[in-house]
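Retro notes, item 3 of 5
We never archived the inputs for the nicotinamide-adenine-dinucleotide complex last cycle. Fixing that now. Sequence and ligand:
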Amino acid sequence: MHQTIYDPVKYATPIGSKLTCKGWIQEGALRMLLNNLNPEVAKHAGELIKYVGSCEAAGNFEDLDCIITTLKMMENDETFVIQNGKPACIMKTHKDAPRLLISNSQHVPGCVNWDHFDELGKKGLMMADQMTPADPIDLISQATVQGTYETYATIASRYFKGTLKGTLNVSAGLGSLGGAQPLSITMNEGVALIAEVDEGLINKRIDSRYLDLKITDIDKAIDQALEATAAGKAISIGVLCNAVHLLEHMVARNVVPDTLTDQTSAHDPLTGYWPHEMSYEFAKVLRIENPKQYTLYADTSIYRHVELMLDLQSKGSISFDYGNNIRSRANERGLKDAFNVFVPDYIRSLFSQNKGPFRWLALSGDPNDITATDELIIKMFPENKSMLRWMKMAKEKITFQGLPSRICWLGHDEREEAGLAFNELVRTGKVKAPIAISRDHLDNGPAACSSNHETDWPILNALVNTAGGASWVSLHHHGTVSAGNSTHAGMVIVADGTDDAALRLRRILRNDPYMGVMPPVDTGYKIAQRTARENNLDLNLIFNTVASTVEV
Ligand code: NAD
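Structure as it came back at the time:
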């Protein structure tokens, strides 16, 4: 682990309309990189580790300093190359080329495993990374809240007549992404009961209004959750305990939650999962002093955790994996039924229609700039009812953390139209500084997770976005599901109000979502094939006939 030498003044995010770099694209990258270290946003104030176990914003603080200096001095016809969190070189390119190109954590496939990864990490040659720092618009809980909300909304409509009112929804982990769970559940009117061992993180979620209550006694937390469920009251409770202990109490009391999932970082047992057979304080020491033994304990707990999920599933809980590889870890330890905890396919049909996560951030730091964009989006797409419903709730319930931002799911043409309209807001001075636009890596095109046939797509996505002139483009291996199991591509496009930006926005916000339709077309999803046909997208569909194998 790298030494912490965080200086809150030195690393404060610049805000306002004045440039500290030579162009707004570099400025955008700088502000968003520093935003992710802002104590309001960062998982733990003062650390480079941002989220998902051990993912970092830069290799170390020296690298971070060099990245900051380079962003400040580079010209508008240059491209800065960052490799594994380290500043590598500056290349002469042209004004429409990305200002940053980033690759992190790549392995030749035959060499991928945690031991090799850690060995390289110790030598400073490898950094755990997801969409960072390449995609610093990855606004953590603020950004994942809608994806999680959509997942629970689909569960509600599939199993509970459209609302989670009167249902008990249990999970664990209030970390950077998991922190979005309680609010997503209460926004769907349900009760959330979430186990978390780190009291500081529970308090943080309460401060940011993502979580309603903290309870330290497991049985009291269960009682209060049951009372609220019976009364049809939407509340969220963070219970200070290990996930295994919470589920053991539930099984012993025969309390069967309606839904059950998990967002601990079980994909990385050493830095992301806390074992249940020892105190949290003891585990912190063991993790550093004897990582091998710690990992054995964590694996034993993961096995027990999934065993309990299966038990509750057999009694009626809708038990699903939320992309943290917990099933595979348990299966590797010998739990043969682990894969019965299913992976939901709740949002792929939206992707197949080319609807996806569209996010933006006000580089000025002024919440009024987001208000201006909110009003514009609401006015522009009055027929998009689910987006209107979401925006109303988001405006009421989501507290800004760091630079103000918004996420909402938009259709294909809508994303392009919104990007161009934001550029106009900047050009006409209706907002105080440019707007940075991105999307989640939870989208079809840019992410291949635990997939054995889709890995070309994120690589092609990065290449297409580079060709189109995105402001920065990144390629990551290792994402949410552990070494060897995923490849992700990130992109950001800055709307700085210029004509050049308008042309780039058109290309990127058209091509990037198009690339998202291609994987499900390739897999044989009917809806995706229809979308591709309507948009004259897929050459196989135009010139040949591709058999459809999947209904949705
Ligand atoms: P994180 O590392 O920031 O947070 C994990 C949290 O789990 C920590 O706060 C930790 O204290 C807690 N925890 C660990 N073991 C525990 C245990 N046994 N009992 C109770 N609490 C425990 O991770 P994150 O960014 O929140 O992501 C969580 C997982 O979800 C990751 O594996 C990530 O890859 C996966 N995931 C999330 C999304 C999403 O959009 N939300 C998507 C894909 C994957």
